[in-house]
Amino acid sequence: MSNVDSFTSKGTLEVGSKSYEIYRLSAVEGSEKLPFSLKVLLENLLRTEDGANITADHITALAQWDPEAEPDTEIQFTPARVVMQDFTGVPCIVDLATMREAVKDLGGDPAKINPLAPAELVIDHSVQIDAFGSEDAIERNMDIEYQRNGERYQFLRWGQTAFDDFKVVPPGMGIVHQVNIEYLARVVMAREVGGVTRAYPDTLVGTDSHTTMVNGLGVLGWGVGGIEAEAAMLGQPVSMLIPRVVGFKLTGEIPSGVTATDVVLTITDMLRQHGVVGKFVEFYGQGVGSVPLANRATIGNMSPEFGSTAAMFPIDDVTVEYLKLTGRSEEQIALVEAYAKEQGLWHDPSAEVAYSEYLELDLSTVVPSISGPKRPQDRIELTDAKSQFAKDIHNYVGPGDEAKSAAVSMPDGRSFDLANGAVAIASITSCTNTSNPSVMMAAGLLARNAREKGLNSKPWVKTSIAPGSKVVTDYYTKAGLIDDLEALNFFVVGYGCTTCIGNSGPLEDEISEAIQENDLSVTAVLSGNRNFEGRISPDVKMNYLASPPLVIAYALAGTMDFDFENQPLGQDSEGADVYLKDIWPSPEEIQSVIDSSIDTEMFDTEYGTIFEGDARWQQLDTPEGNTFEWDPNSTYVRKPTYFDGMTKETSPVEDISGARVLALLGDSVTTDHISPAGSFKADTPAGKYLVEHGVERKDFNSYGSRRGNHEVMIRGTFANIRLQNRLLDGVQGGFTRDFTQEGGPQTTIYDASVNYQEQGIPLVVLGGKEYGTGSSRDWAAKGTKLLGVSAVIAQSFERIHRSNLIGMGVLPLQFPAGESADTLGLDGTETFDISGVTALNDGTTPKTVKVTAKKEDGQTVEFDAVVRIDTPGEADYYRNGGILQYVLRSLVES
Fold first, then answer.
1. Rounded to an integer, what distance in angstroms lies between the CA atom of residue 746 and that of residue 729?
2. Beta strand residue intervals within 185-256, DSSP E
3. Domain Aconitase/3-isopropylmalate dehydratase large subunit alpha/beta/alpha: where (predicted)?
4. pTM of the model
5. What angle do CA 342, 347, 353 make, to 5 degrees?
6. Class of residue 31 by CB neighbours under 10 A (exposed 0-12, middle 13-18, buried 19+)
7. Residue 137 domain-assigned?
8. Domain check: are 459 and 326 in the same one?
């Protein structure tokens, strides 16, 4: 549908010798008072107004936004582009390839299935730290990465040639979010539409929750599940409620000895306590202009950890300077500045903007911090780290075992006692911090100072650096810091997400055995953004987030049971004690090294050939043609079953009757619990499947890398080793009771699901608060659907996971306010009937449905569950059996 333009906002903007078509915000009354992020959404509606899905009423509702009101107006946001990483991107492209065949089967043209918005995929989630502590670690890890992932990479190379407007950044180039801010982000888009060049704000959705890092550049975007990303690629807008916007005022300056990481952990703690789930956060005030771009990106990156949809910084001189530094063209920079000023998107600290809620942080009050042992918001001031560890260790060991240790002898002659609290992994990793030169340079200088004092990492620590882009290595080299880092055993091991997503690789055999045999509770310290249970390494129970320099400090200390203020890290050559404060670099030293070591040429060099890849990439055999030739023997890429037997017309939705409980779960069940991304053992359903298909244990790879194979992923759903299914007492992992058998014996969740599906018994999952928190993981919803789950009933849902469930045709229901499975006396042995779902067939969405749970003794529990289908668009998806079915039918009709 063509644009209606009820407000006659369309006009032109001249920049230099070029002319751009724009939609002027000044045409809409009230627009000038809106927060930055809502102005971006308003332009989006003006440009896409079609009189049906997007109307003048929507535009007026947004322009007249009431900051005090609770969100109730649904709008359709059409992102300018989509960005993906390979874990979530592979299934997206698998689905697009499958949709091409489904369109063909329904009598349509397969070539119609193409991204309608530019889509870019960065392969960054597959490198694992198999080799470390040596100069050739990076080459060895990349060789292994290609051996493990060759099939997936061939498939992605096929996609790069088969689909229009789809680009792939090959392995070894960097982390998606860092590549996004340093290269892919446009800030203002310029795109040919109907013979003219149209300029509009760069907006995006990404298949990774930390997509919000780009908010630091003034680009509005956030993480969505792969399911929504596919829809966005195919031109479907994202349904959303006009959000509340929290104004966050920054004042003061970061004190000496405090890093951007400490600031971000403090903001995460503040915002989690305040409550910002589903809201936008926007930084404002005089202090914003003095926040460097890298720090803005670090703050934006952590948005999912504090729970907001986005965490925006406006466009200003700092943005423009960063675009210059990173080698954007003069034409692009001129457009960004002219467009932002013309549209009122340029930061004016004196402008009065009303926000829904207000918070303030004086940066001078921030102190060094870490977070752990299992959530990013569990902030600990560094001075309290030792005493807090002494309290937390009790949750991980038996009474009296706090000081337990084991003697370990290594083949190379190292021998040591490994104790509870030992730092087994110290990793500088993840986009959050590796994109920030101030913390990376601080780590390098700390290493130099430690080396000069004769300090070294402890012999049991697995050390690593995985930069977010090659530019980091370039500036480390230019500053002469690589040798210092390597002297402390911190070698570059790869360019990718590594430790933060569980690709920390195996610990050395002897260390792993000592941990397992003695049930030791060791720790990991990483500069990442996620530290959920069971995520970092199967051998490590306690995980801590810290700044890059503190990662090195903990490698020197070797234990979490350490007080940096009062305990020396070691002695210098004179025998004098050396404390952390003696080797911590000053802010002036860090800044002067940054100024002399980072230049635009580095960005031009590294990004000039970003899509070409190395020899390994160029030598891959790549299939051709506009439909993919599936390899029947592939254990990585298989054609999924979502569209099997699909008809052109929808079938009516039905009530759910006689359902059994597959899992009864508590609070804060994450998408990691539902769909783990890390390694798995041979005796799990996924392991057995691979063994049956001739795959050796050493070639299993991770769940995340197998995402293109639904057979592995179904078997891995609810298979996290730390999952607590309360249908069983004291059993952790992917197990349940199978009520198709007499007495409901214990079995794996996958095997029980097969039995239930064979008998035609629908399934439900019962959950607590914040169900589905964590990474936007499409397989958490796809696996739930393929296990035969028809509904999830929880106390509350994380935003992305709730919409993903609907996108797969699974009904998200909420217990009545104040109620839970516990308060209602449900223990999971009941059979469930859910009535009132059929009201959706009339085109309306019921507010509640009636749930009747029948116990084994015939007693019943009844309650009205709240239907969490929040928008008409979501109701359409549910009626169609999912978002992809909806898109397919629309494309075949058109």
1. 11
2. 188-193, 196-201, 203-206, 220-223, 238-241, 245-251
3. 68-558
4. 0.84
5. 100
6. buried
7. no
8. no
Query: Backbone phi, then psi, for 13, in 5-degree steps?
Result: -130, 125
Q: What is the pLDDT of residues 419-445, one digit of tens each?
A: 999 999 999 998 888 889 999 999 999
Rounded Cα gap, residues 225 and 801, in angstroms? 7
| Residues 695-704, mean pLDDT to the nearest whole number | 88
Q: Is residue 436, in this structure, part of any structural domain at all?
A: yes
- If 0-12 CB within 10 Å is exposed, 13-18 middle and 19+ buried, where does residue 194 land? exposed
User: 């300077």: which residue's tokens?
Assistant: 321
Are 112 and 51 within one domain?
A: no
- What pLDDT digit, counting tens, does each position of 483-530 carry? 999 999 999 999 988 887 778 889 999 999 999 999 999 999 999 888
DSSP 8-state code for residue 850: E
Residue 446: domain span: 372-608
How many Cβ atoms are within 10 Å of 175's Cβ, its own excluded? 29
Please calculate the CA angle 509-688-784 and round it to the nearest 5 degrees. 110
pLDDT in tens, 536-545: 898 999 999 9
Other beta carbons less than 10 A from residue 575's beta carbon: 6
Task: Specify the residue for token string 């449900």.
Answer: 826
Pairing mode, strands 74-77 and 238-241: antiparallel
In 3-state terms, what secondary structure has residue 453?
coil
CATH number, domain with residue 309: 3.40.1060.10
DSSP strands (E only) in 158-244: 166-169, 188-193, 196-201, 203-206, 220-223, 238-241
In angstroms, the CA 440 to CA 479 distance is 12
607, two tokens: 């990004």
Does 408 reside within a domain?
yes
CA 731-735-736 angle, to 5 degrees, is 100
H-helix segments, 519-618: 548-557, 580-583, 587-597, 600-608, 615-618
Amino acid (one-letter) located at 882: G
Residue 701 resides in a domain = no
Residues 174 and 211 in one domain: yes
Lookup: tokens for 106: 């329904």
Angle at 707 between CA 706 and CA 709, to 5 degrees: 75
Counted domains in the chain: 5
